[in-house]
């Protein structure tokens, strides 16, 4: 895996289009020039890697992402896999688990969508609110097979933070290396004890909706991270923003990708989270997790 020392955003989208179901153009994140400018700003602030978890169900565009990476100088790690049920293509319904695994395998070993851009992480594979559908189970089974065969890490989507414990139990049953698994969107639970139970199992967790205060206030995220540090789990947490809308970007008056560094990190410091933990979440933990995946 290509990795550059520096800050890493572990769960982002460079371009994504969910408008076919959301019925709103705002969810078609296709502002190339504006994204490049924001990524250049991130580079100036020390960001060197972004994990782009846009997969087959999100109208991904690997060449677009590669061009943004070239122009911004940020290393963007691309993914393979499928999202949650309502975004799954008919292919997932019709294909066998092994056929889904074959597709992921090809994208890791050969390239995504006929390009030479190789996927380096499986995700964000998702479950629905409080449940895993039959089609989602097929995706999770296929992901587990490829993970065990190739050593590729897995990153997940939990709808509003739900079903995280069950995801962990699924991976345990399938003998997946929990130290290679990230459970996503855990900050949306608002429940630090729920998160701590997952950390007890050995997975990584992501506070990856920073700035989305319509879901949870950032001050609550700060309090939960303080408690996680107090409990000694500072090696198992990542930060990101999961930006998916045009209105999130600065050119439309949104908070922008740099909000994490410019606003949330100072909030963490003011709230009593140590600089050591902040550095681990942004620099050291991502490096340890991703560099182990070197192929």
Automatic annotation (TrEMBL):
UniProt xrefs under SUPFAM superfamilies: Metallo-dependent hydrolases (SSF51556)
Cofactor: a divalent metal cation
Gene Ontology molecular functions: hydrolase activity; zinc ion binding
Binding of a divalent metal cation 1, residues: 11, 13, 124, 242
Pfam families for this protein: PTE
Cofactor binding comment, as recorded: Binds 2 divalent metal cations per subunit.
Signal peptide positions on this chain: none
UniProtKB keywords: Hydrolase, Metal-binding
Keyword Ribonucleoprotein: no
Source taxon at top rank: Bacteria
Annotated binding of a divalent metal cation 2, by residue: 124, 157, 185
Recorded family membership: Belongs to the metallo-dependent hydrolases superfamily. Phosphotriesterase family.
Protein's name in the database: Phosphotriesterase family protein
Lineage: Bacteria, Bacillati, Bacillota, Bacilli, Lactobacillales
């Amino acid at each position: 895996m290509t990795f550059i020392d520096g800050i890493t955003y572990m769960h982002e989208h460079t371009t994504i289009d969910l408008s076919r179901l959301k019925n709103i153009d705002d969810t078609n994140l296709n502002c190339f020039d504006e994204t490049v400018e924001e990524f250049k700003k991130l580079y100036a602030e020390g960001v060197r890697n972004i994990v782009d978890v846009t997969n087959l169900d999100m109208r991904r565009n690997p060449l677009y992402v590669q061009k943004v990476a070239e122009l911004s100088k940020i290393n963007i790690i691309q993914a393979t896999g499928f999202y949650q049920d309502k975004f799954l293509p008919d292919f997932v319904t019709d294909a066998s688990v092994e056929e889904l695994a074959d597709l992921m395998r090809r994208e890791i070993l050969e390239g995504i969508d006929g390009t030479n851009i190789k996927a380096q992480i499986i995700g964000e594979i998702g479950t629905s609110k409080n449940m895993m559908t039959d089609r989602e189970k097929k995706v999770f089974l296929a992901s587990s097979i490829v993970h065990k065969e190739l050593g590729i890490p897995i990153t997940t989507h939990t709808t509003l933070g739900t079903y995280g414990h069950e995801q962990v139990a699924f991976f345990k049953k399938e003998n997946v290396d929990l130290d290679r698994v990230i459970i996503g969107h855990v900050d949306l639970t608002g429940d630090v004890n729920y998160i701590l139970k997952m950390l007890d199992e050995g997975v990584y967790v992501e506070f990856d909706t920073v700035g989305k205060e319509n879901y949870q206030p950032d001050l609550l995220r700060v309090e939960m991270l303080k408690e996680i540090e107090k409990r000694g789990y500072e090696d198992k947490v990542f930060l990101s923003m999961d930006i998916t809308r045009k209105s999130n970007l600065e050119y439309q008056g949104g908070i922008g990708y740099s909000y994490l560094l410019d606003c949330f990190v100072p909030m963490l410091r003011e709230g009593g989270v140590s600089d050591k933990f902040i550095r681990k979440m942004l620099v050291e933990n991502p490096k340890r997790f991703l560099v182990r995946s070197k192929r």
